[in-house]
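TA notes. Do not distribute before section.
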Amino acid sequence: MSGWEVARLVLLITHFVGLAAVIGPFIFQLRAKGAISFTTMLVGSIVQVVSGGLLIGARRFEGLPVDDLKMLVKLLVAIVVLVVVVLGMLRRRRGAGARPYLLTAGWLAIANVVVAVVWT
């Protein structure tokens, strides 16, 4: 196994950990009655955007195929998730309801998983 392949696999694992950091708190807080926390989701969404972009570059560098349209859709959805999480954090700081932002970010993250798995 080459060093670049190891690096790509580490990026892939990092990408999955970022995904868990977005979807985990979403699921955990679905039934929450109190304040919503976006901190872990923020870190996870940043990890998703950065590691996703680096994964695309790593695949290109290794000469592996990249479906440009699929990657563009996934990257755009990941960026929207990041923006929604930031907006949710700002809304929560103002004391306003942040639940719609939690739901939007969580369901979009799950939709991104569906794109990753189903789009061939």
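Switch to the second chain here.
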Amino acid sequence: MAQHRFKVGDVVTLGRSFIKMPEGPFEVIRLLPSDSADPAYRIKSRSESYERAVREYEIKAA
């Protein structure tokens, strides 16, 4: 299992283009356990009322 590169409270942006997504920034809310080589996170934008689950390859440091 890979180590998480980001920690709770880090500010990130989406590295890939997603349809109907706010541009960010997003805050890392939770580190998720991962069964693959790519760690997963829960992130939240201030402009949305809900969290999103993303893999580490989908985000980058803001």
